[in-house]
Design brief:
Blueprint lengths: L1 E7 L2 E6 L8 E2 L2 E5 L7 E6 L3 E3 L6 E2 L4 E2 L24 H16 L6 E9 L4 E10 L5 E11 L1 H18 L7 E6 L2 H8 L8 H11 L3 E6 L7 H20 L2
Length: 250
Amino acid sequence: MPWIRATFNENQVWVEVDDAGRLKAQGGRVAMRYSEGPGAKIYRAGVSRVTPHGEAKPEALPEGTSADAPAKKPATGKSSSGFGSAGTRTKAQAEGALAAAGDLVASFSPDAVLAFTDGACQGNPGPCGAGAVVKLPDGRHLERSKALGVGTNNVGELSAVGLALDLLDEADVPADTAIELMTDSKYTNGVLALGWKAKANVPLIESLRRRLAPRRVRIHWVAGHVGIPENERADELANQGVEESKLTSR
């Protein structure tokens, strides 16, 4: 089947076309892949989110694998993202993590607000910071960095969610607006979305739970440092907070 190069959420992808080079859409979605290699995961992306390259020519690519196929469970029976850890993951794991994040974002309503949060510290505990990026449906792009003094990485990750909520409040985003919030912290996702019992940072977690309760917020875990532009920007902002914390702790 022919494919052409295109842009999807600022990422370079391949999308399926017919012999004339027109997007081969079904139900408002088109087949999309992040790699031209054999066995690449095939996703279904909203046509409105895909921008074909103007001079691109259709090319035949090796057969891929549907992303809807059930994933194999680890032999240990324990749950795993399969994407490895930042700094040690393979190229294939990084590509898979980026593809999964792209597919997740493609599933969101065009009317939803997207928020990306990240925390950082040096020393754990050590100089700590938080960063948040918020994208509104009207095109506004909001971001903020915060210095947290001395703290742990988990405090930075949790505080970043608070930063995102601050940005929503200041932008007067109605409480009934759908908010899709991405974090690369499994701890933050666990205590705020999966019902994990808080054993540390209890006041901060309880405060965030109260702030989240009246809003339509869905929290999602995404792999960090795989090239998600907004996630990378949130990381930069968090590290700005770390640098500011260093100055105040001298």
